Amino acid sequence: MASRGTFTTRLGGVSVVPYAENNLGHHVGDDPHAVDANRAASVGAMHADRAVFMRQVHGSDVAFVDARTLGDIDGVDALVTDVPGVALGVLVADCVPVILQAQRAVGVAHAGRRGVRDGVVGRAVAALRQLDDGPLTAQVGPAICGACYEVPGPLQDEVAGAVPATRSTTSKGTTGLDLRAGVVAQLRAAGVLDIRHHLACTAEDPAYYSYRRDGVTGRFAGIVVLDP
Ligand SMILES: [Zn+2]
User: How far is the CA of 63 from the centre of ligand 1 (A)?
Assistant: First the structure.
């Protein structure tokens, strides 16, 4: 069995300013009809029957999606499934979107500052391995980079105390966090060897939504679907 995973951009949808254009997030104040249309187009492009997104809470809980799961899932930050044709989506605007692909199962995870600190990626990998314990590929998507993501020293210490790879210095010479470096370290610690990197920085590249840069804005997505 094969699967397809992709990261959307903010280009090509029907949302208007400040959500223009391809906002996939329902929780940011955009017209729900525009979001539904954007989701339908983005998921349709993946040749999926339907999609399951999350109402994410910056936690580390994982939900198993089965053939009966409908709509968005509340209160989780990772999804896994072994059901073909059901797209899984993670919504982001600076946090790290992670796509996991094994032979017979797929997953997504939302890794922001708290998710990295609390190990959501490792928990998602463990959940995926309950469905398929073979080799897996991880795609680490566009996110704010360690040179842009400035945080106060105590916050840096809190996250880097748990995940040392996240410690960064920003382009201004101040304390920062490199969340993608943290995610990669966690994937390696979980035994994931095949890691694909999407190096765009959301705060620097206008093709992506960035909460840090824009405040009120949309969300792009990491989407993965297991082929029938
Ligand atoms: Zn950057």
Answer: 31
Q: Which tokens sit at 7?
A: 């990261």
Distance 20 CA to ligand 1 centre (A): 21
The token pair that represents 207 in the structure block: 């093709």
Task: List the chain domain ranges.
Answer: 3-133+199-226
Q: How far apart are CA 163 and CA 93, in angstroms?
A: 21
Query: Taking a C-beta distance cutoff of 8 angstroms, is the pair 97, 90 a contact?
Result: yes
176 Cα to the center of ligand 1, angstroms? 11
**From ligand 1's centre to the CA of 147, what distance in Å?**
5
pLDDT tens track for 166-192: 999 999 999 999 999 999 999 999 999
Residue 120: both structure tokens together: 């959501």
pLDDT digits (tens, 9 = 90+) for 15-66: 999 999 999 999 999 999 999 999 999 999 999 989 999 999 999 999 999 9
CA 212 / ligand 1 centre spacing (Å):
10
Q: Report the alpha-carbon distance of residue 27 to residue 190 in Å, rounded.
A: 32
Fold of 3-133+199-226: CNF1/YfiH-like putative cysteine hydrolases (3.60.140)
